[in-house]
């Protein structure tokens, strides 16, 4: 009996020991991964992801020492689990970066996972926006890249070249932690201006490898100036050109919004001379320049700004917004035109004068006024063309608009060849008004029939010498859309100086300009001869140049000008 009790006690002890050993074995935490965890690499982009599948003997926890990693979920239960590791941001440090993710089971650290994120090629600028005063200044743009090869360049719009000067080496050297020097020239305009550009790196074949964010330079407009002496330099007459053929065709230039200091410094005269050169830059005026007399008359304004609160000699007013309309005090313009003795003492010369008012602003605008009459109800050729220094004195836009307004509308009384779909069909009343203009020899570049056998330029369409395309690729025909109307009015060519200020004046327009010049230069005895015109015209056809083939690009792109204003008012004698 005693032996049986001893055996039973021994058996119970063995069971207890075995049970205790089994329990101790189950409590050792472990985590087993289903795949290789030696090379855990995240992509360089934001939200790059790794997914790890594993099993755990106990509840588990995960944490990381990196702020650029997100772990989901951060904990789980016994059994099979998945852990997602995300990159919270793209790696723009310029180098591969590493982090540690620690997995624990039942609070005991089990495994440290080494996570790396690929680097993203970077081109960083320290500062993206620079505010510059109107006087201009030099600035340093600090930037850096992790690329060890490539050619760094600046990418910018064409207009930036007019007022930013970059250091020479930026387009030819590899740049690592470099400084780009930029000189900002003074802003002569009262309008604020902004330049945007980027630094880019290309390989040897010219393929872009990387680009910086946009860098902006914002320059304030110039302050408003005030004249101190309104009388001494005002109303002075200077003859800029004397005719050598015919009786002389009068052109008078004057400026609005110019200070006494502008006249004293010579700036006023430079602007007037530039305006004269632009007036003679298109055929046929270019080749008939010797028939013209040109004067400038000085005009001192109190301010060199336009708008409410400012005072200028001719009180020019720009409507602004999407409008290009300019109004001015035409009586004072006529008064200053007659500061020229030859014009004041010869009414017939006054009636033939083209007055050009150049506004001291770079605003995109321009308007011409014609249809002035005399006291005996006669209608004369006198016209006023208002044109700002659009984009600056050397700007192609300034030249184009001055030619459109002052040669086209003002001197030759041509009408616009552009159209708006929203304008629809031209009203019958407007057709009638324009046909009355044509009885004066005006508006000869538009018609109100598309019939090639009836249109007023049919003589060109029937002349083989004007068949085919010209040097600009234009073909004489009938193209619907003119006088701002989409239908019911026709123009001679698809593009022209009277449409988008390009491709010169077309043949009917050149003919009208030629007639006006010869009629004014020689008076009544002169009689038009078509063959003489063709002989002259074929020798002086407009030819493309680098600038005459393009439109006014950034400046006023897509904006047509206000149509010419037919005033029906009597001229004022001085």
From TrEMBL:
Keyword Signal found: yes
Matches recorded under Pfam families: BACON_2, Peptidase_M64
Annotated ranges, domain BACON: 45-108
Single GO molecular function: metallopeptidase activity
Extent of the signal sequence: 1-25
Keywords: Signal
Name of the protein in question: BACON domain-containing protein
Species per Swiss-Prot/TrEMBL record: Bacteroides intestinalis
């Amino acid at each position: 009996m005693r032996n049986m009790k001893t055996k039973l006690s021994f058996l119970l002890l063995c069971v207890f020991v075995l049970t205790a050993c089994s329990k101790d074995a189950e409590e050792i935490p472990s985590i087993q991964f289903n795949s290789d965890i030696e090379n855990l690499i995240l992509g360089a982009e934001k939200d790059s992801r790794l997914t790890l599948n594993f099993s755990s003997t106990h509840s588990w926890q995960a944490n990381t020492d990196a702020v650029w990693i997100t772990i989901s979920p951060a904990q789980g239960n016994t059994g099979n689990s998945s852990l997602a590791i995300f990159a919270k941001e793209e790696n723009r440090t310029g180098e591969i970066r590493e982090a540690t993710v620690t997995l624990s089971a039942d609070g005991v650290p089990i495994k440290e996972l080494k996570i790396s994120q690929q680097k993203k090629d970077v081109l960083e600028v320290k500062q993206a926006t620079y505010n510059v005063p109107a006087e201009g200044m030099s600035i340093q743009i600090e930037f850096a890249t992790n690329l060890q090869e490539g050619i760094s360049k600046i990418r910018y719009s064409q207009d930036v070249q007019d007022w930013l000067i970059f250091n020479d080496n930026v387009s030819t050297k590899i740049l690592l932690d470099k400084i780009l020097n930029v000189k900002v020239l003074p802003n002569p305009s009262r309008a604020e201006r902004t330049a945007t550009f980027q630094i880019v790196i290309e390989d040897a074949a010219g393929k872009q490898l990387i680009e910086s964010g946009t860098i902006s330079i914002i320059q304030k407009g110039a302050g408003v100036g005030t004249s101190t002496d309104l009388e001494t330099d005002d109303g002075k007459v200077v003859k800029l050109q004397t005719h050598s053929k015919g009786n002389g065709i009068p052109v008078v230039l004057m400026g609005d919004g110019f200070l006494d200091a502008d006249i004293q410094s010579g700036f006023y005269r430079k602007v007037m001379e530039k305006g004269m050169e632009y007036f003679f830059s298109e055929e046929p005026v270019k080749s008939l320049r010797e028939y013209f007399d040109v004067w400038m008359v000085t005009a001192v304004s109190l301010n060199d700004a336009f708008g409410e609160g400012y005072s200028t000699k001719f009180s020019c007013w720009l409507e602004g917004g999407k409008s290009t309309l300019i109004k001015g005090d035409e009586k004072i313009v006529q008064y200053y035109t007659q500061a020229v003795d030859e014009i004041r003492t010869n009414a017939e010369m006054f009636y033939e004068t083209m007055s050009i008012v150049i506004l001291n602003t770079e605003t995109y605008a321009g308007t011409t006024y014609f249809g002035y009459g005399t006291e005996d109800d006669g209608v004369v050729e006198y016209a006023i063309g208002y044109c700002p220094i659009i984009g600056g004195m050397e700007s192609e836009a300034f030249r184009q608009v001055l030619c459109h307004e002052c040669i086209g509308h003002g001197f030759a009384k041509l009408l616009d060849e552009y159209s708006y779909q929203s304008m629809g069909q031209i009203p019958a009343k407007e057709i009638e008004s324009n046909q009355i203009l044509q009885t004066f020899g005006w508006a000869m570049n538009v018609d109100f029939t598309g019939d090639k056998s009836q249109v007023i330029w049919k003589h060109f369409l029937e002349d083989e010498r004007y068949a085919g395309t010209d040097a600009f690729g234009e073909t004489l025909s009938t193209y619907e859309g003119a006088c701002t109307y989409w239908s019911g009015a026709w123009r001679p060519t698809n593009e022209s100086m009277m449409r988008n200020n390009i491709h010169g004046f077309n043949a009917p327009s050149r003919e009208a300009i030629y007639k006006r010049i010869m009629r004014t230069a020689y008076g009544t005895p002169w009689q038009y001869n078509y063959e003489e015109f063709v002989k002259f015209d074929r020798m002086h056809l407009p030819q493309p140049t680098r600038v005459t083939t393009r439109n006014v690009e950034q400046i006023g792109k897509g904006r047509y000008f206000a149509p010419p204003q037919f005033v029906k008012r009597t001229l004022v004698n001085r």
